[in-house]
Amino acid sequence: MFVDKAEIILKAGNGGHGGMSFRREKYVPNGGPDGGNGGHGGSIIFMADNGHRTLIEFKYKRKHKAENGENGSGCRSAGKTGEDLIIKVPVGTIIKDKETGRVICDLSEDGQKYRVADGGRGGRGNMNFATATRQAPRFAQGGVKGQERTVILELKLLADVGLIGFPNVGKSTLLSVVTKAKPKIANYHFTTIVPNLGVVEWRNFDPFVIADIPGLIEGAHEGTGLGDQFLRHVERTKLLIHLLDASGSEGRDPLNDFKKINYELEKYNEKLAKRVQIVALNKVDLISDQEELNTLKGELETLGYEVFVISAVTGAGINELLSRTIQLLDEIGEVEPIFDLEPVEETVYTPEFKEKQFTIEKIDNVFIVEGAFLERLINSVNFEDLDSIGFFQRVLKDKGVFEELEKMGIKDEDVVRLDEIEFEYFK
Predict the structure, then answer these.
(1) DSSP codes of every residue in 28-51
(2) Residue 311 in contact with residue 221, Cβ under 8 Å?
(3) Residue 160 falls in which region: left (phi positive, over 0), alpha (psi -120 to 50) or beta
(4) pLDDT digits over 338-388, tens only?
(5) 209 annotated ligand-binding residue
(6) Is residue 312 marked as binding?
(7) Would the annotation count 237 as a binding residue?
(8) Can you give the residue ranges of the Obg domain (predicted)?
(9) Helix (H) or strand (E) holding 90
């Protein structure tokens, strides 16, 4: 089963909490703090692998989680770092962020890696909070949660040449003739329901990969028929061979078909529509009126296209078409990507408590404070220790929480709720 699109949920590992511990030995009864730092959570990394051909495994396993970092402990022992989760995908996989729709990475080479979800940083142990005036801190820092995101995987076939055209114009037949591929061939629309790949080895030239792109009909860019499932596969091609049924055996006008297919390409992606394109007039073995064929060829050449007259059944004109294809591939070289990638960013770790925001809502005389930094802050605090409570209050003050509460009219003894913690406010 060929699966070329999947949606999965990623959860990077949480950072371990910092340890809260004091050195206690036989001759050192009042040793200082020695709680170690928590380990960083594991990240989620995607890797392109030639051994994978489809995204089918992601249809059955949608949630992927990296290992959490371990908590710090006494004797300044740091917690173990969580292992990264490496997810292997086929070469040619593009990873998009579901929320924004932007492309995160394009894994186009075997072994290429990209970190898509960052593990959380481990919290600092209480040994880091000792000062000349606070020699026995009874609190440690909580670990940061790992990044969570939903991504969409899309497999785009790595073909040098894409065969485009309406259904039943002979694309599968041509592919079977010029390669060793064995696509399903029959005289009805949408015979090809998955893209077929083949390697063309012609004479002594370097081989190239050609893909039969199925399902293009009028309205494909809007999802009509099967086209929207397959248009993505022509995005990587350097050259497009536009196959037309010159005989009109389906009762359609070849020139009109040509214009409709190019309209679909332009609507799908303007950069794609600008790919070098040559035209192959197929099924000429069914044409008796040579003048009509010459007229069609002349009209296409007037539009600026190179035109080749072929018959995939008899083999007429195939050598000329392949010879020009190889020459053009060499001339074109590398092509510009038709989609924009997100800028490569370093780890999302940021200075503690400085980057987060919060909101305050008053419900039934209770001031509810919410913010991404609160859970980590609460995990850092020992509410039975005055030093720890003082640390807690300083962070809230530095964040501007108290200032905002006062702007909202809070009074002494009013209740403030932070996560699952409630306390009475006193100025």
Answers:
(1) BTT--B-PPPPPPPPPEEEEEETT
(2) no
(3) alpha
(4) 666 555 443 333 334 344 468 888 888 888 988 877 777 776 666 766 667
(5) no
(6) yes
(7) no
(8) 1-158
(9) strand 85-90
**Does the annotation flag 285 for ligand binding?**
yes
Instruction: Give the Cα-Cα-Cα angle 333, 334, 340 (nearest 5 degrees).
Output: 160
- Is residue 351 a known part of a binding site? no
Cα gap 269→276, rounded to integer Å: 14
Is 68 a known ligand-binding residue?
A: no
161 marked as binding residue? no
Written as one letter, the residue type at 109 is E
Q: Was 412 annotated as part of a binding site?
A: no
191 annotated to a ligand binding site: yes
- 122 touches 79 (CB < 8 A): yes
Q: Is 309 annotated as ligand-binding?
A: no
Question: 117 labelled as ligand-binding?
Answer: no
The annotation status of 257 as a binding-site residue, yes or no, is no
Token reading at 289: 């009126």
238 is in an annotated binding site: no
Mapping DSSP to helix (H, G, I), strand (E, B) and coil, where does residue 57 land?
helix
Can you tell me the distance from the alpha carbon of 304 to that of 284, in angstroms, rounded to the nearest whole number? 21
Structure token pair of residue 397: 């003050």
The answer on whether 279 is annotated among ligand-binding residues is no
Instruction: State pTM to two decimals.
Output: 0.64
Structure tokens given for 224: 């009509």
C-alpha of 213 from chain center: 23
- Residue 167 assigned to a binding site: yes
Is 171 annotated for ligand binding?
yes
Residues in the chain: 427
Contact 53, 90 (CB under 8 A): yes
Residue with tokens 């699952």: 420
| Ranges of the chain with pLDDT below 70 | 1-3, 27-30, 180-195, 214-235, 337-357, 379-382, 384-387
Instruction: Determine if residue 284 is labeled as part of a ligand binding site.
Output: yes
Known binding residue 168? Answer is: yes
Q: What is the C-alpha separation between 332 and 404, in angstroms, rounded?
A: 61
77 among annotated binding-site residues: no
Domains of the chain: 5-155 (2.70.210.12), 161-332 (3.40.50.300), 358-424 (3.30.300.350)
Report the C-alpha gap between 160 and 162 in whole angstroms: 7
- 106 labeled binding residue: no
Query: In angstroms, what CA-CA distances link 104 with 34, 97, 226?
Result: 41, 6, 26
The answer to whether 315 is a known ligand-binding residue is no
- Beta-carbon contacts of 315 under 8 Å, excluding residues fewer than 6 positions away, are 177
Contact 14, 144 (CB under 8 A): yes
The per-residue pLDDT for range 88-133, each reduced to its tens digit, is: 998 889 999 998 888 899 898 889 999 999 999 898 888 888 887 7
